[in-house]
Amino acid sequence: MGIQILVVLQSQKERIAHEDVVDLDALIRGDRAAFTVLVRRHHRALMVVARGMVGSDDAEEVVQSAWVKVFLSIATFEQRSKLLTWLTSIVMNEARMYLRRASRQFEFSRSDSIDLLTGRFAQDGGWQEAPHAWRLPGPEEIMRQEQFGACLAKILEKLPAQQRLVLELRDIMELSLETISAELGLSAGNVRVLLHRARARLYQAIEKFEVSGQC
Amino acid sequence: MLTCRDVTAQIDALLASELPFFRRIVYRMHIALCGHCEKYVSQYREMLEALPDVRDDASDAEVELVLELVDRSQYTREAGDT
Prior knowledge:
By secondary structure, chain A is mainly alpha-helical. Chain A contains nine helices and no strands.
């Protein structure tokens, strides 16, 4: 199934590779088509970041305001970081300003501390319910691949907002733990906890899909 | 002794190369001997390798809304300049 994920995502990757050629020179010239590609490509990832910091109700406002700033300041992008990293830092700044104006703070959520694997181990710490093998792709899997892609998106959507935020920043945008910790004002330990919970949830959900076909 | 439960709890530290040397050796010995843990670690690793490619494009409506706001902000700036 790990291979299945890779196969499903390969087609997405090829499509993205084609669409993701953001013409930076055109962007800097203020080219609307290039900006449209940029928005289409990254808006939802930035929404995940904002949602994790300010909550679902206010995320849209934060991201829209960030896009206006991006458009006005794209000429100052010095290409020292990836474009997505730069966009993310603008959204995070905007989110922090939003929280300050609302006299709110980004706080580590201590809820949802359930160990997802509890029940899978015997008292001696050995597996009681062993991990299921994820299937390799075959002809009969082709129909399932589309379902799996949709399921993966749904699983990510269902993650608690802070876990989704840290997973997005670390495993999708590939920011370092130190950067995430500094940007969110959380201890490295708390970032690790959120990341571990998110990954464990994702693993469990993928396994469930593999075993039952249910998302 | 490292248990299978410990393997799942410490997997992120292993993958981030944050386990101390001796602990890492013990961990690797465990997964070399335990098929269940070997499966867990390899599937977990594949999941993480696949994640950077999970991307979801915005809809036309979402893009339009952003472009409208950008246009409006430009108009406001230009009006302010004159």
